[in-house]
Fold this sequence. Notes:
This protein is an alpha+beta fold and 262 residues long. It has helices at residues 9-30, 48-64, 93-97, 167-177, 190-196, 210-213, 216-222, 249-260, and strands at residues 37-39, 45-47, 69-72, 83-91, 104-111, 114-122, 127-132, 138-139, 142-143, 156-159, 182-185, 202-205, 226-228, 243-246. The chain has 8 helices and 14 strands. The strands form 3 sheets. The protein has a 7-stranded mixed beta sheet, with helices on both faces. Strands 11-10-12-14-13 form a 5-stranded mixed beta sheet, sandwiched between helices. It has a two-stranded antiparallel ribbon with strand order 1-2.
Amino acid sequence: MSYARDRDFPRALTLANAMADAARAIARDYFRQPIEVERKADLSPVTIADRAIETEMRRLIRAEFPGHGIRGEEFATEEGEGYTWVLDPIDGTKSFITGFPLFGSLIALERNERAVLGIIEAPALGERWVGAEGLATTFNGTAARTSACSALEQARVYCTSAEMFRADDLERYERCTGGALLRRYGGDCYIYGLLASGYCDLVIETALKPHDFQALVPVIEGAGGRISDWEGQPLSARSGERVVAAATEALWTQAVAALSGP
């Protein structure tokens, strides 16, 4: 049974949107304001906004579904039964702290380690993609649909930064996209929203963690696209760091063939 037919789905969807609303409000309070930037153990940046958003998201979850688990980027995992919320309060903190508006907040709900509900929220732009297993993806309340691109040479390709690729990954990326129509860089989770709405055709990235990609799965799939790891395996809480998302099955098949080879 698809999650959209689950009896708790309306409550979960309402909660997810409430968390996205909270993320939008808090992010806007801090965006382009003088704030302190700290470095985490992995040297990635974090701000008071990241922590404030995740704190509020966790409060909302506990109030509505106290038995659910929570796994976020900034705080310790809280174990639960059946379902787990996966949170990235600010995906693209480097963009956020430099005033670039294409950062986002990611909210996912997992069932059996598979994302069944996902939101890409772009606070600075007032834009939101919502996807759920069994339903069509929406963008600001209207239907979103991927493009009909079916060939690599016609594809508009995005990734957040070429710096994310190690030498062997960069070789695979170049093999896959060297003959594409165009390649663009930057955007973090926002580029997956662009893919869901048909404005680009292929996103290829690495160095991602589950909180970076779980929310993307229902959004891309509900818009008609395919998303997986580079080997073509479905994404889950146990997936590795490599992600490829494509507008169509045909384009995804070609991309995976190029990325998964030796």
